[in-house]
Amino acid sequence: MEQDELDQWAALALRILHNIPAADDGQVADALAVVQDAATEPQSLLTPSDILLSAEEGAPGAELLAACEAAGFTVVTTGFVGG
């Protein structure tokens, strides 16, 4: 995938991430807000040293994953390499 295409997909993913509706309160809403706040630009979704949706301890996504699982939601992710 060319860099320009990757940048455009990341920009789309960022827009989608920031448009996910959440309840006003609760662990899932709070954790989603942390991920949304950390995703300030498209490249923040692509940086290997700070992958937002990683389940690794310390990554913003780890809190979101734990909150979703605690609330009984199954979390499924899929990688995309272009098209």
Secondary structure layout:
Elements: H1 3-18, H2 27-38, H3 60-70
Helix pairs in contact: 2-3
What are the salient characteristics of this protein?
83 residues; mainly alpha; 47% helix
Q: How does this model look, in words?
A:
The chain has 83 residues and is mainly alpha-helical. It contains three helices and no strands. The termini are close together.
Secondary-structure element pattern, one letter each: HHH
Task: Please tally the helical runs, counting DSSP H or I stretches of 4 or more residues.
Answer: 3
Instruction: Indicate the radius of gyration in whole angstroms.
Output: 13 Å
Helix coverage percent: 40-55%
Largest sheet geometry: none
The number of distinct β-strands equals 0
Whole-number mean pLDDT:
82
Distance between the termini: 8 Å
Rough shape? globular
Assign the structural class, choosing from mainly alpha, mainly beta, alpha/beta, alpha+beta, or little secondary structure. Answer: mainly alpha
β-strand percent reads: under 5%
State the low-pLDDT regions, or none.
Answer: none
